[in-house]
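mind reviewing this fold:
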Amino acid sequence: MIAPKYARVLLKISGEVLAGEQDFGINTQTIETIADDIQEMVRMKVQTAVVIGGGNIFRGVVGTAVGMERASADYIGMLATVLNALALQNVMERRGVYTRVQSAIDMKELAEPYIRRRAIRHLEKGRVVIFAAGTGNPYFSTDTAAVLRAMEVGAQVILKGTKVDGVFDADPILHPGAKKFSSLTFFEVIQKGLKVMDSTAVTLCMDNNLPLIVFNIKEKGGLRRVLMGEPVGTRLSNGNL
């Protein structure tokens, strides 16, 4: 059997993906499909960390748009990511996959506190680690949290699962003729103003030479193909991926 290209990865899943075709909430079929993919990663002996957004439940930027104070809105968004993390943990453990949720905000009745060395040890033992509550600080997105945690645990790559096949020059849902990029440098992402991640997350990847692959997590077998090094989605790097 051919070994996967990566031994330790961080999978970033947007909250909107969990909603499926719904406007909000968690779609049961969607989270089961994502759990299938993560279970396959475990079978492939890929050490897997996960960060999930909370946009299917609440987005801080939406809260501020209706007059909420930004820090309060962001904290509500962080709590939404905990709900998603616990839901995914439940689905994974029903399948017999050992999973740990680590929260950047202390809530010991529900999750472990985030401790870097403990997270690494869980990964070494083959457990899936789900990082919840972002960085624990307002004004930072879950994309930035994903990059930060990936660097802290020594992930070789960030895999960003979205609803589209990669990075395009325009929203492919609104513009069917949008051009897809097969690869980009982080500098090009910033220069072109592409909405891959927020600028803080992109800069962190660039400064620390951490590659990122954006792919369609809803495509059956797509995640496995990414792990095997096949040309799936859009690959972002400093030009040396």
Notes: The chain has one domain: 8-237. The longest strand covers residues 8-13.
